[in-house]
Amino acid sequence: MPKNSKRPSLIQGTLDLLILRTLLFGPCHGHGIAKHIQRTSEDVLQVEHGSLYPALRRLEDSGCISSKWESTDSGRDMRFYKLTAKGRKQLEIEESHWEQLANAMTRILRTVRGDT
How many structural domains are present in the chain? Predict the structure, then answer.
């Protein structure tokens, strides 16, 4: 993305979906989740830690994810997050809502004047 262009903001409510979708591929630590989102969005989406960790806490409190501390190969302790069965169900719901929203936006953006 060109440096002079403004990055789009995450639409409210999409961060949970992005986290749940990322964890579908397996347990991951917070920084890894943020990097996965950035990488797979081709640097369009960047999740700030100030938004990520409250979202992780909220998802854990709701039972959609669980976490545990593990030592890495470098000897550092890191908290790894894992999708739960409840989280998988919530992911399906969130993906369905996102598809509906994306389809509605596409219809609106493709509408030509006079179609209304």
Answer: 1
Q: Is residue 115 part of a domain?
A: no
User: Which residues span the domain enclosing 43?
Assistant: 14-110
Q: Is residue 63 part of a domain?
A: yes
By C-alpha distance, which of 59, 51, 39 is closest to 9? 51
For the chain, the helix, strand and coil percentages under 3-state DSSP, each to the nearest 5 = 50, 15, 35
Q: CA angle, corner 40, sides to 38 and 41, nearest 5?
A: 65
| Residue-level pLDDT, tens digit, the chain, 116 residues | 445 456 666 676 799 999 999 999 999 999 999 999 999 999 999 999 999 999 999 999 999 999 999 988 888 999 999 999 999 999 999 999 999 999 999 999 999 876 65
Query: Is the pTM for the entire model greater than 0.70?
Result: yes
Residue 27 is assigned to a structural domain of this protein: yes
> Is residue 9 included in any domain, yes or no?
no
